[in-house]
Amino acid sequence: MTDDSGVLVRARANLWRGAEAVGGRLTLTRDRLSFRAHALNVQTEPLDLPVDQIVSMHKYNHWRIIPNGLAVTMASGTVYRFVASKRDRLIAAFAAHRP
Fold it and tell me: Cα separation of 95 and 47, whole Å?
């Protein structure tokens, strides 16, 4: 994702892919939530989630005690789990710009 127009929030984040916490960056725009992994990760595939397919974004406690988790639930039922630096801002921006 190279176009900066329409960016609502950018945040450092880890995406849980199996047992690996893939480090990278989350970008929320009006149209999509995108994750781009750092090049040094084993799993570097990009992830693009259309905002109109996101049912909810909510907080969770990583390892049940660390308050930095962000769960994104899709209309398909798939849940993506992140550890995100700006989860409150991501959730608020998503809620404010929901289709």
Answer: 20
